Amino acid sequence: MSASLKDSNSSKFQVSEFVLLGFPGIHSWQHWLSLPLALLYLSAIGANIIILITICQDPGLQQPMYYFLGILSVVDMGLATTIMPKILAIFWFDAKVISLPECFAQIYAIHCFVGMESGIFLCMAFNRYVAICHPLRYPSIVTNALILKAALFMVLRNGLFVIPVPVLAAQRNYCSENEIEHCVCSNLGVTSLSCDDKRSNSICQLVLAWVGMGSDLSLIILSYTLILRSVLRLNSVEAASKALSTCSSHLIFILFFYAVIVVISVTHLAETKATLIPVLLNVLHNIIPPSLNLMVYALRTKELRAGFQKVFHLRLQKKLRHKRPSP
Question: Where is the G-protein coupled receptors family 1 profile domain (predicted)?
């Protein structure tokens, strides 16, 4: 083992560090994936910064729908930044070693951001439901105060809710193996190396997933069922088509988000040997949606497209004005 071993009497951990091997089965050429992953990460950060700048600077976008999109952009950047710098360091500098506290901190951050993203999806679904099913009451229901309360609730809920996951992982006894067939510290991937009973971790993760994201998904499905029922009652085909169009991109992201989580969870809980597809899905799940936010949400929304043009056209005009020589 590349990690040093400690005397079991001096510490409750015998393994002092973990080694992230990367993608299973392709260790010899996985560094070639660093370029597309780096481009995805840069596009994720750049696209979401553009969204935030546009929403902040265009008064016409100071609306609940765009506030939720701005919060989603912040969460997505946090999630991508939690994993991508370490993955790129593994590929470029062979920095595979990660300390135990750093690993458990990454487990906490991943679960926290994923839970917050699920919560924001629920808020966006509720926003769409009120806008389509109760348009006259929308201004009195979805207020700035409600958005602030919802955002604070999501931060507190997920910040506190996921604490048992890394705490239980840290209480396991890691006495021999320390090599993880993954690019990131996943909870079930790390605890699979422990020498003692790890069922408490699996049960904890399953319960938290069902209570947290399971309840979010149930309410999202309920919201879109009510939206679909309301849309089908519209006499205008054009109005129905417009209403469904505003929800379609959101639904695509939701299906991808929850489907990947189910695949990863089932693979780990079945205790199958780590394979490339689930590990690759785990990484792409945290980087592809943030990189597509600009395209899927923004470019399909007429008001946001107009906001981009207005904000960046004004910036370009100011730069050209400064470059012109004074008469």
Answer: 47-297
